[in-house]
Amino acid sequence: MRYGLKEILDIGEQGGFAVPAFNVYNLETVLGVMQAAEETGAPVIFQMYSRLFDSEIARFVSPIIMEAMDSMKTPAAFHLDHGAGIPEVLRAFRYGATGVMIDASKETLDKNIAVTREVVKMASEMGVTVEGELGEVGKASEGVSTDYTKVEDAARFVEETGACALAVAVGTAHGHYKQAPVLALQRIAELHQGQKAHLVLHGGSGVPDDQIQAAVKAGIRKINFGTDVCCSLLDGIRAVDPSVLALDLFMKEPTNRVKEFAVSKIKLLGADK
Ligand SMILES: [Zn+2]
Asked: 147, 135 in Cβ contact below 8 A?
């Protein structure tokens, strides 16, 4: 079932859980996530990185995602992750995305608000809802910033942009962590109470389970898993008997690894019914 970004995150808010967002790249990753959602009855978000919208990949993988969403009995959304600018957002509309992220978090607060507001305006014409980012979620390899998103900035950002979801800096980063991160749980709770948008946690791969659960309890409603989707597929590829040549048979185990990974995160977030 196709759901918009806001609608699917509303389900999480009502149920007090976070909806997992998995970064997909190809048929196998889409199938693995779809099978996990079907097996658990959970709502899920398929998302693709902005750079894939700059290549041919999004054009060819988007129809696979649409087909998956339409064949699923559970709610599913299709999201542009870290939209770099208007060209990527426009392509996401064309390819059927039901949510887009615009990431102007490197800009000043005023510029970030102006850019995000413009995208919300365009997206509303397309019936698409928007995730913004406030406070920079950097790369894990560069260390995790303790410069957390401020509640008053978040309230102003959400009020002035109309974004339905907000990625915040609360102690996570993208990629592989050198050591386990420590999340700012108190700040998450204050941000949840202090503004209207659904809170998004980026850099979910590698965060210890107890911290993920505490973050959900504090009010996080969308958690992104990118790095570990790749790792699970690649681990599956390395585990296959190399004498298997037929690609559909070869890719069965890697697809299954993605499914198992997605099932474990769905359960961790409390998204299974
Ligand atoms: Zn991110």
From this structure: yes
